[in-house]
Amino acid sequence: MRRLPPLASLRTFEAAARQESFKKAAAELGVTATAVSHQIRQLEAYLDVPLFERQTRKVLLTVEGRSLYPALRAALDSMAEAVETVRKRPRRCIATLSATVAFTAKLLVPRVGTLRSLHPGWDLRLHASDDTVDLNAGDADAAIRYGLGHYAGMTALPLLTDRFAPVCSHRLGLREPADLLGATLLHFDWGPIASRVDVPNWRSWARRAGIEHLDPDSGISFNDESSAIQAAIAGQGVALLSLSLVAAELASGALVQPFGPVMEGLKFSFVYPEGAENRPAVAVLKDWVLAEFAERQVAPPAMGTEATGRPAHSR
């Protein structure tokens, strides 16, 4: 632990020693000459040595004062330089974007580098949560939301219309919809959105595919989409998944889409509070997200012909 007198008294001493005048030191420091004299007396009492010889028009350093002054001046100069460096350093700007855990992991993380290429002075903070954040409260600057595309008090810009189809590991050897009768179905919890709108599920898909004896509720359930994706990659079963979120796995062969039909899901939208488009963070995120996603087909195109022989179509 450093044993030092008050910084104010050291600063006052340095100014008085450099100016050789309490009056001039007072003018530099913006205090009275009396205040300077008081600070010097406090320092001398702390050190128990005199630091100045008081003369009529100036003050002169004593031997002890001359010993203290050079080191103290160098220390204060170094402190001032460090403070100025920090003060002039450009502040990093941070833009916070919220999205679901699955969307963040599968579609945002692989693209994070492009934001700083577009806007070098900005840092990105990704808020991954399946809970809806309060953008008006500042929990995030903007969000990517999944739904019908209309949000009260918000501007919503369409990014992608999602599509769903059965996907699995090629190791399962599925070839046609009837093969599902002997397969394990994988499910994930849609959360509150399922109570407001129809979402793709195995029951509606089986009806669409014309499979009468499939038990749409059987299999393994997960509370999040990411876990269902990982289970499908691991060959634990077949999942009805977003083709947008598993585009990379389909392209690499980690997953296959063995058959249709393909079902249309909901919309991914870039969302921010109405009137906030001129906020710097919102503008940066909007520029980046639209450049990456707007009107792009993230998932591979749907199969031209299903295994059943019927043309592929979507709801």
From TrEMBL:
Keywords, comma-separated and alphabetical: DNA-binding, Transcription, Transcription regulation
Molecular function per GO? DNA-binding transcription factor activity; sequence-specific DNA binding
Coiled-coil residues are none
Single GO biological process annotation from the record:
DNA-templated transcription
Q: Which SUPFAM superfamilies does its entry note?
A: Periplasmic binding protein-like II, Winged helix' DNA-binding domain
> According to its UniProt record, what is one Pfam family this protein matches?
LysR_substrate
Q: What is this protein called?
A: LysR family transcriptional regulator
Q: Which domain of life is it from?
A: Bacteria
- Give the CDD domains listed for this entry: PBP2_GcdR_TrpI_HvrB_AmpR_like
**PROSITE patterns the record matches:** HTH_LYSR (PS50931)
Name the Gene3D superfamilies on file: Periplasmic binding protein-like II, Winged helix-like DNA-binding domain superfamily/Winged helix DNA-binding domain
| InterPro entries documented for this protein | LysR-type_TF_proteobact-type, LysR_HTH_N, LysR_subst-bd, WH-like_DNA-bd_sf, WH_DNA-bd_sf
Q: What region holds the HTH lysR-type domain?
A: 5-62
Q: Which family does it belong to?
A: Belongs to the LysR transcriptional regulatory family.
